Amino acid sequence: MHELGIATAVLHEARQEAQRHPGARLRKIRLRLGELSGVNEEALRFGFEVLARESKLEPLQLEIENCPRRQRCRLCKLTFTVANYDLTCPGCGSAQTEFVSGDELEVASLEMEEYEPSAPGAQSS
Amino acid sequence: MSQVPLERKVLSENDRIAAALRGRFAAQGVLCLNLISSPGSGKTTLLERTLEALPAGARVAVLTGDIQTENDAARLRRFGFPVRQITTGGTCHLDARMIERALAEWPPEPFDLLFVENVGNLVCPASYDLGEAAKVVVLSVTEGEDKPLKYPAIFLKSQLLVLSKIDLLPYVPFDISAAENNARRIHPEIGVVRLSCLTGAGLNTWLEWIEERRRALQAARAELVT
């Protein structure tokens, strides 16, 4: 169970970026999670909720895009999504395919809300 | 509401340190292998047999990770090579910073082969690059042959699968071909070595695999210099 560490790293990356936007408030983190990332979504969400609450970042949403494994055929160059561990090219039937993606563990984007100029805290940081 | 594209790897800080370690290993001609398995698959025993087989003057060092205790380091020190225990104090994997810290003032003598024995765990170590040249996943025949399908990340990221404890095959319902096929369903190019640390079967194939990697590293380095 390393998802708490992963959640900490997600928040760290997001807050670092948020600091470059003074006065803005972090509302949503969009994460890409590959099926081969070795990260369990449920445990990650749990860790994230705890950390967001502890660090007074609530309400903060975590949106997760699940990414399946994708392979590319070395012969016909077709890129396809893998189902049921079958790495064979659905286009030409070749077994000569290579890994493209599916191990994503990335912060894709953030959604931030701007403070009203008069709101307290707008001048801080 | 404003959108800020970030496109940043979550473990970018770990990856940065790992990349620095990898650069350093390449410059110094160090082959670093990251050994990963469930608890009890025989990583430490495999290292014992490996160290035992190396000549006394071999420039080898071992970092061994566990949540608690110095037991593994004590087992491995008997062979006279520098061994350092990393106790993570609860963390279920090693990360690049732990390796960087451990290597800061250690070992005393130069080395060109570094074994990193990760914390026994098939899940979390897959996410953390340690700057190694290759990950090696160890699976013992007393486990299930479907482990590669249950824990695909580590089998995808490992260059070699070591099937250990094959001396027990007559006593356990383990289909070793099925285990290999399952690993190849996840990672068609993965290398496979079947071995027993008890009988010594397959150990030479493992040692040759290491030697091949060392030669390839030296050749790549020689090319860089010229």
Describe the structure.
The complex is a heterodimer of chains A (125) and B (226). Chain A has 125 residues and is α+β, with helices and mostly antiparallel strands. Chain A has two helices and six strands, in the order αβαβββββ. Chain A has helices spanning 3-18, 41-54, and strands at 24-34, 61-67, 70-73, 79-81, 97-101, 105-114. Chain A has a three-stranded mixed sheet with strand order 2-1-6, with helices on one face. Chain B is an alpha/beta fold and 226 residues long. Chain B is 38% helix and 21% strand. Chain B has eight helices and eight strands, in the order E-H-E-H-E-H-E-H-E-E-H-H-E-H-E-H. Chain B has helices spanning 12-28, 43-53, 71-77, 96-103, 147-150, 152-157, 176-186, 203-225, and strands at 2-9, 31-37, 60-66, 83-87, 113-117, 134-140, 160-164, 191-194. Chain B has a seven-stranded parallel sheet with strand order 4-3-5-2-6-7-8, sandwiched between helices. The mean pLDDT of chain B is 95. Strand 6 of chain A pairs antiparallel with strand 1 (2-9) of chain B.
Strand content of chain A: 25-35%
Q: How many beta-strand elements of chain A?
A: 6
Largest sheet of chain B: 7 strands, parallel
- Give the class of chain B from helix and strand content and strand pairing: alpha/beta
Please give the number of β-strands of chain B. 8
**Which two chains form the greatest contact, residue counts included?**
A-B, 34 and 31 residues
Give the helix/strand class of chain A. alpha+beta
Q: Which SSEs are present, and which pair or pack?
A:
The complex is a heterodimer of chains A (125) and B (226).
Chain A: H1 3-18, E1 24-34, H2 41-54, E2 61-67, E3 70-73, E4 79-81, E5 97-101, E6 105-114
Parallel strand pairs in A: 1-2
Antiparallel strand pairs in A: 1-6, 3-4, 3-5
Helix pairs in contact in A: 1-2
Chain B: E1 2-9, H1 12-28, E2 31-37, H2 43-53, E3 60-66, H3 71-77, E4 83-87, H4 96-103, E5 113-117, E6 134-140, H5 147-150, H6 152-157, E7 160-164, H7 176-186, E8 191-194, H8 203-225
Parallel strand pairs in B: 2-5, 2-6, 3-4, 3-5, 6-7, 7-8
